[in-house]
Amino acid sequence: MHLARLVWSPQLLEYDFGPGHPMSPARLDLTMRLVQELGLLDHLDVVDAAPASDAVIQTVHDADYVAAVRRAGTTLEPDLARGLGTDDDPLFPRMHEAAARQLGGSVALADAVWSGEVTHGVNVAGGMHHAMPGAASGFCVYNDAAAAIRRLLDRGAERVAYLDFDAHHGDGVEAIFWDDPRVLTVSVHEDGRTLFPGTGASSDVGPPGPAEGTAVNLPVPARTSGAAWLRAIDAVVPVLVREHRPQAIVSQHGCDAHGRDPLSNLSVSVDAQTTAQQWAHALAHEHADGRWLALGGGGYAVSDVVPLAWAALVAEAAHVPLERGAELPAAWRAAVEALDLDAARTLGRADVPFRSWSEGYDPADAVDRTVQATRRAVFPLWGLDPMLD
After folding, report:
1. Is residue 236 helix, strand or coil?
2. Do 279 and 228 form a contact (C-beta atoms < 8 A)?
3. Does the pLDDT value for residue 1 go beyond 70?
4. Is 64 exposed, middle or buried (CB count within 10 Å of its CB: 0-12, 13-18, 19+)?
5. pLDDT in tens, 258-298
6. Helix (H/G/I), strand (E/B), else coil: 379
7. Runs of H (alpha helix) within 325-365
8. Which domains does the chain carry?
9. How far apart are CA 329 and CA 313, in angstroms?
C-alpha cells in the first residue's frame, strides 16, 4: 500500500471558465505533466475523481444553490444573486458536474485518510475555499475543502485543523465552520484592505461562546517576503495546532502568494511555500497520527510557479522530497514552450532562512505587528500568553 493517494482525472480539466480567465486548466495539466516526468506517480496511489452526489454537496451547500448551479450550467443563463455568471465565475457547460468532481475527489480522500486506507491525500484540483453555502465566489463554485472537513467530522473526527496558505483569505471555509468549535481554521493571507475578498482581519476570531478563538486570521501586508511569511506562520500556527490537538489536518496550498503571481501583491518564493508544505506535513505526523489532506487552490502563474509548487506538494505527501536546484525534465520544459509559455529550469534553490519569533518582536516591522495583533486576539482565548507562548 502506498503512503499517499493522489486524486486525478483529465476530466478535472473541464472546470474551465474559458479563454482569458486566470484559472486556466493548463496550470493543472502542466502540474500533472511535471509530476509524471519527475517519476512521482511511481510513489503514489493514483485514483480517479468521481463527481459527488447532490447529497454530499449539500453537506456544505444549500439545496437550492446546488439546483441553481446545475441549471446555470445547462441554460447558461446567469444567476447573479448566487454569484453565477459574474466576471469571477463565468458560466460554462456542465459547470455542476465539473465542480462536483472537484468536491468528490476531496471527500473521497477524506474517507481514505480517516479510514486508514492511506495516510496522506492530495487533490491539486481542489482547495476551492471561497465558495459559500449559497453562492459562488472568487473562481470557486463548490467548496471541496469544507466538504472534506465535514466528511471527517461525520466519520467521527472530534477535531480537525484547516490551514490555508493561499494569498486570499479562506473566507468560505471559515464561514461554514464559524460557529463549530471542532474546526480550527487558520488563514494566512494578504491583508483584505489590499486584496479580495477584503476579509480576514486579525480581530475575526469566531463568535462568542465555544467556537471563539477557533477562527484565526493572519493578514500579512502587501509585499511580504517569503522569510517574513514563514516567520508569521511559525509564530502562530504550530502552537495553536498543538493546543487544538486535531485528529486530522486539511491544508490548502494556493500558491498565488508568489511574487510572479498576477493576482496578489506578496513575494513568497516556491522555496518558502515548499517549507510551509513541509510544516503542514510535520504537524500532521506530530498531532494527527499523520492524517493529512493537502489541496491546491489559487495560483495563476501558470507555467513558472504553479507546477513547481504543486509537484513539490505531491512529492512531500509521497515522502519523496525533490532535490532543490535540480534541473527540471527537458520533456516538461518542451511541453511548456509548445504552449508559448515560459518554462522554469529548476525546482527551487534552497531553504529560506527566517527569524524565529522567539528572537523578539519588532514593533517597527509591519509583519510583526500583524503577527502580534493575531496573537493578542487569539492566544488568550486558548489560555496562552501572546508575549511568551
Report:
1. helix
2. no
3. no
4. exposed
5. 999 999 999 999 999 999 999 999 999 999 999 999 999 99
6. helix
7. 330-338
8. 4-52+99-382 (3.40.800.20)
9. 17
Q: C-alpha grid cell for residue 163?
A: 490551514
- 183's enclosing H/E stretch is strand 183-190
Q: Strand 160-164: give its sheet, edge to edge.
A: 45-47, 4-7, 120-123, 292-295, 248-252, 160-164, 183-190, 215-220
Of 61, 120, 129, 130, which one is the catalytic site residue?
130
The verdict on whether 96 is a catalytic residue reads no
State mean pLDDT over 368-380: 98
φ, ψ at 337 (rounded to 5°)? -65, -30
Partnered with residue 161 across adjacent β-strands are 184, 249
- pTM for the whole thing? 0.98
Q: Give the span between the Cα atoms of 96 and 56, in whole angstroms.
A: 13
Strands (E), 202-291: 215-220, 248-252
Of the candidates 321, 317, 322, the residue with the CA atom closest to the CA atom of residue 109: 317
Query: Residue 257: left (phi > 0), alpha (psi -120 to 50), or beta?
Result: alpha
